[in-house]
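Hi support team,

I've been running sequence recovery on a batch of backbones for a student project. Most finish fine, but this one hangs at about 90% for roughly twenty minutes before it completes. I'm not sure whether the input is malformed or the queue is just slow. I've pasted the structure tokens below so you can try to reproduce it. Let me know if you need the job ID as well.

Thanks,
M.K.
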């Protein structure tokens, strides 16, 4: 049959997941002390495996392109509110939002020395990873007394609002560290002549974690405690690899590139407002706590196999890798 002008192998994942959860509790007391506790947890997991491959094949073509593109979007929102009215003693509200994305993005040409890939045009092997993760949590705790008309002030009233947001991007296969983002040529004989061979692995993840707790206390009393705590976390794992190994390659220009450029942010706002009034002395304690944590444990590398297993005949050779730090 006639030689094809173009051979294109593309695998693309553009999955989207949106999760929203909310809970509001109201406690009203006319006698005795009121206690209200509310929580909301949103935990989401997404498995994204994207593979484009020419394997164990002999091929004679014009231009050859192998592309694996993975761009999952995962959004989780958790809102919790607890309101205690009348004779409040304690109002507690907590919200937790977490996203887990396990991805494996692979573009490759594989085989052995008997598998010959010939091209009269350029050959490109690329793996592109651009996940987007967003986690938002809000916990609102409100304690409101009956006001200055209350005859006897309360001895103690407290509100606690907490919010936690967490994003985790990783690569795991059956419980073990997985391939991450890989573009590779492994094993075959490539004859491209005076044309270009490009092997590229690119990862541009976007992770945003936001936590906003709110504590509001208004009461006639002697001691008031108002606490707002916010925690936000982002964690990146998985390798970004471009490589040529165990292959016999003939081309004009060979470029092997691996790039990682994460866009990561963790934001927290702890808001607490108290109004404590008494005919005698009153003590109001307001505590706001913020904590953010970002960690990137990915490994980025661009390699050629050792000389014993890989033969190259190229007039121009470029091997590069780039890692851009977290914001």
């Amino acid at each position: 049959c006639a030689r094809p002008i173009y051979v294109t192998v593309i695998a693309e994942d553009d999955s989207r997941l949106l999760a929203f959860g909310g809970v509001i509790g109201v406690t009203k007391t006319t006698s005795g002390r009121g206690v209200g506790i509310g929580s909301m947890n949103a935990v989401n997991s997404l498995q994204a495996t994207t593979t484009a491959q020419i394997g164990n094949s002999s091929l004679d073509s014009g231009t050859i392109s192998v592309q694996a593109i993975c761009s999952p979007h995962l959004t989780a929102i958790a809102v919790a509110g607890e309101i205690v009215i009348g004779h409040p003693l304690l109002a507690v509200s907590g919200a937790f939002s977490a996203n887990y994305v396990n991805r494996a993005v692979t573009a490759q040409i594989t085989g052995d020395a008997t598998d010959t890939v010939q091209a009269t045009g350029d050959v490109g092997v690329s793996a592109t990873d651009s996940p987007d993760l967003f986690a938002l949590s809000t916990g609102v705790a409100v304690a409101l007394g009956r006001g200055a008309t209350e005859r006897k002030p309360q001895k103690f009233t407290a509100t606690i609002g907490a919010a936690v947001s967490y994003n985790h991007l990783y690569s795991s296969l059956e419980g073990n560290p997985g391939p991450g983002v890989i573009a590779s040529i492994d094993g075959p004989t490539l004859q491209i002549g005076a044309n270009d061979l490009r092997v590229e692995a690119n990862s541009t993840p976007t992770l945003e974690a936001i936590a906003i707790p709110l504590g509001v206390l208004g009461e006639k009393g002697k001691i008031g405690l108002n606490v707002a705590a916010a925690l936000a976390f982002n964690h990146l794992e998985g390798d970004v690899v471009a490589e040529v190994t165990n292959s016999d390659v003939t081309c004009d220009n060979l470029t092997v590139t691996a790039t990682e450029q994460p866009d990561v942010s963790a934001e927290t706002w702890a808001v607490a407002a108290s109004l404590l009034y008494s005919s005698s002395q009153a003590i109001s304690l307001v505590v706001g706590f913020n904590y953010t944590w970002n960690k990137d444990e990915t490994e980025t590398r661009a390699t050629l196999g050792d000389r014993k297993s890989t033969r190259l005949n190229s007039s121009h050779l470029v091997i590069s890798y780039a890692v851009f730090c977290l914001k």
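--
Follow-up from support: It reproduced on our side and the slowdown came from queue contention, not your input. The chain has a mean pLDDT of 88. No action needed from you.
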